[in-house]
Amino acid sequence: MHDTDPRDLESFATILAGDLPGRWTSQYHPDHGDTDYDHLAAEVWDMDQTAHAIATYGVFDCAVLTRTDDGARLFVIDHFAKAEGFLVAALAPAGLPPAAYAGVREPSGLAVPADPFHAAEAVTLHLLPRYADAVAHARRNAAALASPLPDRIELTWSDDTLTTPVPESVPIAKLLAEHGFHHDAAEDLLVLPGDDTAVQAQCVRSVGARLTELGVGIGMRHPARPALAAARPRPAGTAPSAARSR
Q1: Is 60 exceeded by the pLDDT of residue 243?
Q2: In this structure, is the dihedral angle defined by the CA atoms of residues 38, 44, 48 and 50, taken in order, positive or negative?
Q3: What is the dihedral of CA 133, 136, 141, 145, to 10 degrees?
Q4: Core-most of 54, 108, 129, 227, by most CB within 10 Å?
């Protein structure tokens, strides 16, 4: 049994941290009267009700939950618009450039009841999966920014398969692998098999769409046919026979 009152923000956050999957710590930031926590509020990864509450009421006390395994962070404040309850939102990961968040959907926070055990269930089922997806997307963007992208990817038909040289860009190589290309070590090529042409076509469409989003062109060509051999020497003809003497 907990001796603390879970309706109190500090106590609620402590109990919530203990009931989430993984190992979490909770740090409470108390209301000192003349102190706000704008530096933390600025990191809240939410464009919905949590952002609205912060803009409307400000932040004068809060709690930050941190997962010790990977540094994921959650932000907890009172839900001032209701008599009881709290708002729980994700904090953006540290160390990523602003451009990494382009196109990433914010993992909007949750309004949860003052019961931390029901709140933990809601956070686990709804907020944490959205948070994980958003972080993964932002990190992919950051990797792409750090690794210059090629202007164009060329796919070449070879029998029923598509091949392309292994790109120097790690994000592009990973993207192709995620869409069915595998590495042929003998040829040092990425290969998309044509065992199922419908699947192959879908993979190509998906790859093309993703590359377009990244500003990378895509081309498809058939291998150049070997040039016709130079005019083959004609077989030596039979020498004309000498005119018969009569």
Answers
A1: no
A2: negative
A3: 170
A4: 54
